[in-house]
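Handout, section 4.2: multi-component inputs.
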Amino acid sequence: EAQVTQNPRYLITVTGKKLTVTCSQNMNHEYMSWYRQDPGLGLRQIYYSMNVEVTDKGDVPEGYKVSRKEKRNFPLILESPSPNQTSLYFCASSGGGSVYGYTFGSGTRLTVV
Amino acid sequence: AQSVTQLGSHVSVSEGALVLLRCNYSSSVPPYLFWYVQYPNQGLQLLLKYTTGATLVKGINGFEAEFKKSETSFHLTKPSAHMSDAAEYFCAVSDQSNYQLIWGAGTKLIIKP
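Output:
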């Protein structure tokens, strides 16, 4: 089944403790992206990647890192999480541009205390 | 800069009534336009899209949307609401690269029995 898999689904952590949210897709898509979703703010892009070793900042990249060493994986790293990074995070991928649609993961609900 | 405006963060309709969710965009060139749906505790999935050709596009679950260039609108409609339509709906427009999407803030559709 074609899908984007995110792990974990839920995560509670403490301020300053480094964490990684994994994202993997099995569709050989070139494009991958991370979003955060907050009430009333919709989806805001954190980082995106057009292909292996090619990443770029989105609208809200502060406090986040990404890497794209393999085509299928695009992990999101929070080096020193803070409470304002408490949010619902989504990974998405696309093969060939937005016209083909994005495939989204099921989301990761992160709480930083 | 491109932007997407969804009128109403919450829309409430009775079961069996017409559903109308409004989306207006700003773009200097003809865009690609999308509606995505997010059911509770799930990721987003593509509902329908306009790229070229016929301006009335049909999507899944009986939804359709009409691209009106003169009004810069792409409103989503469904003739008769079902309880299962309760979800959050996002309108999006492609940017010039046609890889990135500009998102609206979302409209939560509430269905009353």
